[in-house]
Amino acid sequence: MAVPKKRQSTTRRDKRRAHDAITLPNTIPCPQCGEAKLPHRVCPSCGTYKGRQLLEPKE
């Protein structure tokens, strides 16, 4: 079984983990109601997309 000869330094370990951070989703305000929504998706609060009513709004 392969076993490392030397312990990997914390610097090398942390360089590898530098891209593992979780990023927050990019939200934009809805042009109809102003609520935060994901881009290119139907607004969950008012149900509009590109000025068209696609879903019934939540109460």
Automatic annotation (TrEMBL):
GO CC field: large ribosomal subunit
Per UniProt, the keywords (alphabetical) are:
Ribonucleoprotein, Ribosomal protein
User: What are the recorded GO MF terms, alphabetically?
Assistant: structural constituent of ribosome
Composition skew (Basic residues), residue ranges: 1-18
Does Disulfide bond show up as a keyword for this record? no
Q: Where is this region: Disordered?
A: 1-24
**Biological process (GO) annotations?**
translation
Q: Give the superkingdom in one word.
A: Bacteria
Q: Which Pfam families match?
A: Ribosomal_L32p (PF01783)
Q: Which InterPro entries match?
A: Ribosomal_bL32 (IPR002677), Ribosomal_bL32_bact (IPR044957), Ribosomal_zn-bd (IPR011332)
The UniProt family comment states:
Belongs to the bacterial ribosomal protein bL32 family.
Protein name as catalogued: Large ribosomal subunit protein bL32
Q: Which gene encodes it?
A: rpmF
